[in-house]
Amino acid sequence: QRHVDIIPLAILSTQRSDTIHLSRTEEKMKDTTTTNDRLKGTEKTAPVESESFGNDEGGDAGHGHKMRHGLGWGKGIVSDVKRTILTHWKEEMTNLNSKVIATSFFLYFACIAPAVTFGAIYGKATNNYIGTVEMILATAWCGIVYALIGGQPMMINGGTGPVLAFSEILYKVSKSMDVPFLTLNAWIGIWVAIYMFIGAVMDLNRVIVLCTRFTDEIFSFLISLIFIINAIGSPFSDVGVIHYFDMNHKAHDAYEDQPLYSHWASALLSLIVFIGTTQVAFLLRKFKFSPFLPSQAWRNTMTDFAVVISILIWSVIGNSFSEIPIEKLNVPSKFAPTFQCCDASCTTSWPNDCYGQTDPFGPRPWVVNLSDLNGKTWVPFMAAGPALLAFVLVFLDDGITWHLINHPSHKLNHGDAYNWDTIVVGVFVLINSMLGLPWLVAATVRSLNHIHAMAEKLPDGTFVSVHETRLSNLGIHVLVLITIFALDVLKLIPVPVLYGVFLFMGLVSLGSNQFWGRMLMFFMQPSKYPVQPYTQYMAPKRMHLFTAIQLFFFAALYAVKSIKVIAIAFPILIALCIPVRIYLLPKIFNEDELILIDSDPNTVKMWIANKEQEEELLLGGEEGGDEDDVSNHDEEEGAIKPPTPVAAVPARRRRVRTVSMPAGHFMFSEQPSALGPQLRPQMVLGGDAVFRRSLTTPASQEEVSQIQDTTLEGMDLAAPSSSTTNRKNRPRPSRAQRRANSCPTQNMMFEIQIDTGMGRMQKPLETLNESVTSSRAPEL
After folding, report:
1. How far apart are CA 302 and CA 304, in angstroms?
2. Which helix (H) or strand (E) covers residue 489, if one does?
């Protein structure tokens, strides 16, 4: 069976439109049956052992809800290394350009700010056993090593809220057990690393493919909203720009003795700096598609450095008002462990546990003493229990983020490495535990912003390509490492500027979330819904019901994460979304609805194509066209004959039906040629207009005369069809009209003629091949 695949040409249009036109009735029936089998998972094909489940060429196998077979113990790791590091490492380490440099500086600020913030919170939660210095050091060394040996270089490691909540609970457990916190943390970290190694060897990551949009979008929306809420003002802490209006905020404590200090003035300036940082970043980000600046290279550079320029501008503005101070980053003055000891035993913390002592004895040792168990030799074995829960947390946090990163819409081509990266993250957890550093996992928002920053997009946000490189990840964390030896420089950056960066990152990652788009539809007029498969083929009530279920789980996740007593159950609730999607939702929604609203784009396209084919079969196909197609099909299946020139093929056999489509789109139809059936492009201009005639290079003088008799000036547009007319009741054009609508020639050029009221504008376009491969494709 021959299947006509959909050819994506989103780079040539501001909207995506994929239309399949099959010219043979028999193939329509075969493809209909095959597509139904595919969508229902009953197609009888030979079992294939896939090495990758996130970037298969034929579809998005990693974003369905059917688990693939395991690859055998350890084979998944070997396959990941071969597919990523051994194939693309050299290319990813040598493709430096201005976008890489700009992204490195942008995400440096996006990584150093959470490191400082999480470090301060870790210090409060663990009595300074883990603090800001430890967080910055862990971020630097893990990021550098991962950029060199990691399998998915677009991923960025960092601290996350769930891991922080686990560490806070672990500190309380260590106090109740009378065991040093760092020792207990180290033993649990050792067990977590062992579990990670076992999971990678057993190819446990294939469970991640059970996550669909239902789970991915809930998790992604949660992380994005955390960034946005923490930037504006968290209701559960004093983090956020709104809290500056509280006179008891800690940012005002240092200026209480100044009689002219006004917390209202400081809060207002902080709010202006916060909004300005976000707004300028978005403004400069749009320069790529603007007419300003001398050339496109200047505009591209302005877009790449948008966030960095905004940070520099508003940092200067924030520091320009000496009489109105605003909060700066609170970083230590020197590089040393945060925990300061009262004496040589280092069991007590200065100054909380040694009143009257003016100076500390010294910082704690960098390497944790695993034998310091306070006589409780059973602790290393007991640690296996809590470590299992920590493993679930780290495994799901990493896996879902990797799943989001490798979504087909991001157009990543260098493959995934779930099993290999599980090994790498396990090593990071092991070493950090031995040094008393925090555990780092895949940071969702920072990773998604890394992809967005390195992507080429259309004005509507559609991804065209992503510059996949290790150099940006390496540059980000080299800058973080340099910061350790220049901590005083960070004190010049106002905290409201970093809040503005957080808001920018959250909004950017939120814009591509389908769950967020459907939430907004609660407040829209139904006739104004955006054109999506689930808005065109699903009843609005059913769509809103699915969104409401997602909203319920999102609210539950946010509540569990925000309540510290139960925050440790966060990974369990995430894991619960998977069986809910597999077993509960199919009882509420039918198969077609779940395909439309919770499936990968390729599956949705197959479903729509199948639907259109069924409608065409019900309408009976073209008038008299089936006999020609069947006879032609029989001829092809017979003895091999010499190729027939295009000019010798009767016009009847070269005819294809052209379907009305939205303006500005390309569609493809199968047409005979000297080399066999080939796909030919057709372009639609005007509102619901039908492509009438292309400017061609005919194969004979007879065809030239025929074309000149039909239309001497190139292209003509049919009258727009009424939007209120039912498609099935639309009057059928005559055979001559349909023959005139065909587009049979091989070498095609497009020519646009538009009546402007002031004369006729005529503009030829490039040939299709040149348009697709040229650098002007996005402009075209």
Report:
1. 6
2. helix 487-490
Looking only at the bridges linking them, the beta strands covering 463-466 and 455-457 are: antiparallel
Helix axes 98-125, 444-453, angle to 10 degrees: 170
Return the C-alpha torsion angle 444, 450, 451, 452, nearest 10.
100
Please give, one letter per residue, the 3-state secondary structure of 596-615: HHHCCHHHHHHHHHHHHHHH
DSSP, residue by residue, 193-243: HHHHHHHHHTTGGGGGGG--HHHHHHHHHHHHHHHHHHHH--TTSS-SGGG
CA distance 156 to 142: 10
CB 416 within 8 A of CB 68: no
- CA–CA separation, 482 and 107 (whole Å): 15
pLDDT value at residue 234 = 83
Residue of 120, 98, 116, 165 lying closest to 502 (CA atoms): 116
CA 188 – CA 194 distance, rounded (Å) = 10
Structural tokens at position 780: 């075209």
Round to whole Å and give the CA distance between 64 and 323. Answer: 58
Q: Cβ distance 398 to 390 under 8 Å?
A: no
- pLDDT, residue 643, reads 42
List, for residues 475-530, the tens digit of each pLDDT value: 999 999 998 888 888 888 898 998 999 899 889 888 778 999 999 999 999 889 98
Q: Report the 3 state secondary structure along 120-182.
A: HHHHHHCCCCCCHHHHHHHHHHHHHHHHHHCCCCCCCEECCHHHHHHHHHHHHHHHHHCCCHH
Dist CA 92 CA 90 (whole Å): 5
Distance, in Å, from the CA atom of 712 to the CA atom of 299, rounded to the nearest integer, reads 41
What is the pLDDT at residue 748? 43
Handedness of CA 50, 53, 55, 57 (dihedral sign): positive
Report the predicted TM-score, pTM, of the whole model to 2 decimal places: 0.66
d(CA 65, CA 579): 10
The span from the CA of 41 to the CA of 31, in Å, is 15
CA-based R_g, the chain, Å: 31
Q: Do 676 and 646 meet the contact criterion of CB atoms below 8 Å apart?
A: no
d(CA 68, CA 580): 19
442 membership: H or E segment, kind and range: strand 441-442
Please tell me the distance from the alpha carbon of residue 118 to that of residue 134, in angstroms, as a whole number.
10
Amino acid 544 reads: H
Tallying the residues shown for the chain, one arrives at 780
User: Which string of b and e fits 735-748 if b means at least 16 CB within 10 Å?
Assistant: eeebbbbbbbbeeb
